[in-house]
Design goal:
The complex is a heterodimer. Helix content of chain A is 74%, strand content 0%. Chain A contains 14 helices and no strands. The longest helix of chain A is centred in the N-terminal third of the chain and has 36 residues. The two termini of chain A are 18 Å apart. Chain B is built from 9 helices and 12 strands. In chain B, helix 4 packs across helix 5 and helix 5 packs parallel to helix 6. The chains are: A mainly alpha, B alpha/beta. Chains A and B meet through helix 9 and helix 10 of A and helix 2 and helix 3 of B.
Chain lengths: 331, 256
């Protein structure tokens, strides 16, 4: 199998372009040259001919936000790719086994109890997955169908609790905005923590590429080929939960990226996870940086939750690709 | 050589296989026949360790396989499963390369690709190399799956109804291929539903009924009207196929 390097290079190039462009776009007009100088001044000594305000906008507002968008997009697309492969289900996304409901409950609690939202939503998302996994365990094995069903069951239960909290909350709009997903609270500490967990999780997932390919043939066949399928399932679940929880805790529940990006990439690369994973990671990052830029500029100075943009721009594009290709969803 | 001693398998409290002992020599095709639900597929799962037997030994080349991990067993035994339907658009070469999984250490080496090429040549699937698995006919898919099994470089080949979804030409082609591999020194055990195909191609046949071996030996000795009546509850006549001196089973047609 020849690995195609060209698409990876192309996507990396697009990502860099998009990152730089997105930093220079915003309500406050700062030219590309000034933005570049401000960033380079952090490493090299460059004569200052910009204002403090400009420096703050670039370094403390736009740069962490753009980087966080890239990280979250990368995390969601990679985790979605992993879940679709593991569950062999084209409808799977990173949230499918109750992750989003767990995170939402944590966020809702944090707003009513005045606790840090990222921490609480990370904890509840992780607990949700842990519970779902153990409910699904039958005699040392975790059948995929049981995993999906118990994920849906636990998810609905947690969603009910979240609705209850929203209903009785003093300021429910805070929780509701968080649920729509957005990156307006980006700062450097979030970038640091999220990047640590997301990079680690993505690298772990890449290591399962080959075994996930073999498991696409069916679990029993994979076992006949010597794959310890239960260990792969556990590893993939743990790593994708880690990166999804990290992403959700800093950005709320951004839909669509984790479902659609892996599909679009599969149309171009085929089902081989060794190429599908890295292209999904890069494309997810690109997609979220672009949509987040749109979300903060389209109605400026008002910001839209990015989740609204991801779905309203992504869905038509995906439908176009599906129709054009006219083939099965599995691609 | 494959030797199975006193194998006992239970699903919960139900005994599926009781005290099964079998032997297949190198260069021998052992056919497993028996009614639906008699434990044939369970036998294959137990040999590969996908389900753990209550007790009994599986011995390959004098080594006891019980207690081996899945990866080591996959280097010894390859399985061609019943019908294979793969919805994902892998190329044939990628599918066959998956047979190298138990030998791979993260990265594939040039010799892996050589073995993949050899397996495709042996099974006559080389020309399909860049085609997608989703585009092939049932017979072609089965040959590709056999190529994948060969890429494992196994000592033993287990086939679970390798011909049941194929038309007559596909059935004959696949069994011919298996026969060729066996003549090349492979030990093969195949579950076959069609008694006449089993009679024509297998060196020995084991008849399983209710989780037990009812008869075991040369086709002529196993495929008697009495044995078939007892196992399948159906009256048949057994004739001799003069072209290759194997039994032919003719069910008595019920007319009303």
């Amino acid at each position: 199998m020849k690995l195609k390097i060209a698409p990876l290079l192309l996507l990396t190039l697009i990502l860099i372009t998009v990152l730089v462009a997105s930093i220079t776009i915003g309500t406050a007009h700062i030219s590309f040259l000034t933005a570049a100088k401000i960033m380079l001044a952090q490493i090299f000594s460059i004569e200052e001919n910009w204002s403090m305000a400009q420096e703050t906008i670039i370094l403390s507002i736009r740069l962490p936000r753009v980087l966080l968008a890239a990280l979250v997009g990368a995390a969601l697309a990679t985790a979605g790719c992993a879940m679709q492969g593991l569950l062999k289900n084209p409808m799977a996304d990173p949230y499918i086994i109750g992750m989003s409901s767990g995170a939402a409950l944590g966020a809702a609690l944090s707003f009513t109890l005045h606790l840090p939202t990222p921490l609480l939503s990370f904890i509840t998302a992780t607990i949700a997955i842990f519970v779902v996994y153990h409910i699904s365990k039958v005699g040392g094995r975790v059948p995929v169908a049981t995993l999906l069903l118990s994920g849906i069951a636990v998810g609905s239960f947690l969603a009910a609790l979240t609705s209850l909290i929203i209903y009785v909350a003093k300021s429910p709009h805070q929780i509701i905005f968080w649920l729509m997903g957005g990156l307006w609270t980006s700062d450097w500490p979030k970038v640091k923590i999220a990047s640590l967990m997301i990079f680690a999780g993505i690298i772990l997932l890449y290591r399962y590429s080959w075994n996930l390919n073999v498991m696409l043939l069916g679990e029993e066949q994979a076992q006949y080929l010597g794959v310890n399928t239960e260990r792969v399932k556990r590893g993939v679940l743990v790593s994708s939960s880690l990166i999804t929880a990290a992403a959700v805790s800093v950005s709320g529940i951004i839909g669509f990226v984790g479902l659609i990006i892996p599909h679009i990439m599969r149309i171009f690369t085929g089902p081989d996870h060794r190429i599908l994973f890295p292209t999904s990671t890069l494309a997810g990052a690109i997609f979220l940086v672009v949509t987040d830029t749109i979300s903060r500029t389209i109605l400026a100075p008002i910001e839209l939750p990015v989740g609204i943009i991801t779905a309203s721009f992504g869905a038509p594009f995906f439908i176009y690709l599906l129709r054009k290709r006219g083939k099965s969803i599995h691609a | 050589m494959l030797k199975i001693n006193n194998l006992k398998v239970c699903y919960g409290r139900t005994q599926v296989l009781r005290d099964v002992s079998l032997e297949a020599e190198e260069g021998e095709l052992l056919g497993i026949i028996g009614p639906n639900g008699s434990g044939k597929t369970t036998l294959i799962r137990a040999i590969t360790g996908v389900i753990k037997p209550e007790h009994g030994k599986i011995i390959s080349q004098g080594e006891n396989l019980s207690g081996w991990d899945a990866n080591t067993i996959a280097k010894h035994i390859a399985v061609v499963p019943q019908s294979v339907s793969i919805d994902f658009e892998f190329t044939i070469e990628e599918i066959v390369l998956m047979g190298r999984t138990p030998h791979l250490n993260r990265k594939e080496r040039p010799e892996d690709h050589e073995i993949v090429r050899d397996s495709m040549k042996q099974t006559g699937t080389m020309h399909l190399k860049d085609r997608l698995i989703t585009e092939l006919s049932g017979g072609e898919v089965q040959r590709v799956i056999i190529a994948r099994a060969l890429a494992q470089e196994p000592k033993i080949l287990l086939l679970d109804e390798p011909t049941s979804h194929l038309d007559i030409r596909g059935q004959v082609e696949v069994l011919h291929l298996i026969k060729e591999l066996v003549n090349g020194g492979m030990t093969a055990l195949a579950v076959i539903h069609d008694l006449n195909l089993a009679a024509a191609y297998c060196d020995k046949i084991a008849l399983i009924c209710n989780g037990q071996i009812m008869a075991h030996g040369r086709p002529h000795d196993v495929l008697t009207p009495e044995n078939i009546q007892e196992a399948f509850k159906i009256a048949v006549a057994v004739e001799n196929n003069k072209t290759n001196n194997t039994p032919i089973i003719l069910p008595e047609v019920i007319r009303n």
